[in-house]
Amino acid sequence: MTTYIYEPYDTIIARDGRPFTIDPGARAETLPFPTPSMTAGLLRSQALLNWVGAPDSNGRYDEEHIKAVLELTVHGPLLAQLEMHEKNIQNWFVSAPKDALLLKQSQNGTGKYLRRLRPAALPKGAVTDLTDSIAPDLQMLQMDTWEESKADAMPEFWRWDLFELWLAEYPLQFYSKKDPQDNILHVAEIQSAGKISQMMFENHTIKSLLKSTRTHLKVQNDTRTSQDGMLFETNGLEFTYKSSFTHEVIRLGLACDASVSLSNTAASAGSIEKYSVAFGGERRFGMLQNSTHTLPPCPKAITEEIARTGRCRVFLLTPAYFSEGYQPTWLLQDPFSTGVQAVLKAAAIDRPLTLSGWDMHKKWPKPTVRMAPAGTVFFLELQGSAEQRKKWIEHVWMSNISDDITNASVYWNTISQSPEQFRRDGFGLAALGTWTEKEAKA
Fold it and tell me: Domain span at residue 370?
């Protein structure tokens, strides 16, 4: 695996699929974060340039070359904080987990605290619309205690060290003291005290990527002047963020793993690759280069705890395609032949993310597909021995777990009819955490 970093030199437009016509007042909207298919297309396009060269006069490559790059597997993208003077990764950021609730502590909303959702059997006499034919073993998610506080807006991205604590089920209760060292997470102290400051939480999260709106106009070729009434707008994502704690400007970029190096010679393996590339809507420019960093490994304590208890949470770090909507069918079928049978007990999932795209080879739109959004959490029970569970964890951690494509109408590429194409594109990148069951109340 080779890790690649993309740093935008301009805003990024991740088109949301709504029509962007030539009508006056048209606006090109953007998704909150670039999709895996965008970074997969970026890496594969650069691989074609490196391996084959420029396309033909019609802007196309041979289908054999297209098939070759479509087999390139991508893991990501993840949001990365870049070092100030080097294009290297300082911190990872992931989508906020859906099993976390941020609540207001007082009427004026100055204080906040986190609560965790856990699977629990329904109280006696309670019923739901989840019938036996749909989800016979699915449990509801509940808080440990009843809360009257109102929910607050959850930051969209958590820094990895904070997210890792959530994976291991540390309480992460807030206290009000402000400390100059709130910029640093001391894991041992948090583990013993079970608390972090609210300031520390805010410093280890990003509310959202800022959007920049630009107004454009149509220029007439003959007079080089604007044409009356022909105005349109674009919204793009800014990849800089001002810390509310230190007030410093943070450089952000996209990072992902590729199954092969993009370089065209074996001699360049291990050397720095740098490419000036166009990316996203309106082909705005940025720098693509490889990195010595790798995706974060699974913490040993989490591996040991899951192997011992047979319970785990699966977190989606990128959107995922599931043929049955919410259920990770492919993952539940022991695809890695580890001898572990996974049973879905509960799911924390938001409304589906509707994605499309543009087929750069055939020059037509891709079919619309509904995806489980990043941040989705699945609660699983793993049946098997401790050693089998460890093998399962090794295979699933930072792997893509989207379902096989069984419906021909959702194939995004007419050349590659591989059922695992969504996994190759980076959809369904997974991390694992522990969980303990909440006791039901009568």
Answer: 300-433
3-state secondary structure of 1: coil
Query: Is residue 43 included in any domain, yes or no?
Result: yes
Helix, strand and coil percent figures for the chain, each rounded to 5: 20, 35, 45
Q: Which of 118-132, 312-326, 405-419 has the lowest mean pLDDT?
A: 405-419
pTM of the predicted protein model: 0.89
What is the C-alpha to C-alpha distance for residues 213 and 15, in angstroms, rounded to an integer? 14
DSSP character string of 344-384 = EEEEE--SPEEE--EETTTTEEPPPEEEBPTT-EEEEEEES
Judge if 49 and 86 occupy the same domain.
yes
* Shared-domain flag, residues 317 and 426: yes
Residue 262 in any domain: the answer is: yes
Q: In this predicted structure, what is the pLDDT of residue 267?
A: 39
Neighbours of 275 (CB within 10 A): 18
Residue 419 CB neighbours (<10 A): 13
Together in a domain, 322 and 427? yes
The residue assigned the tokens 């699977």 is 119
Q: What are the start-end ranges of the H helices in 83-178?
A: 160-167
Domain total for the chain?
2
Report the interhelical angle of 386-396 vs 300-309 (nearest 10°): 130
The total number of residues written for the chain in this structure: 442
> Domain for residue 163, yes or no?
no
Same domain, 242 and 340: no
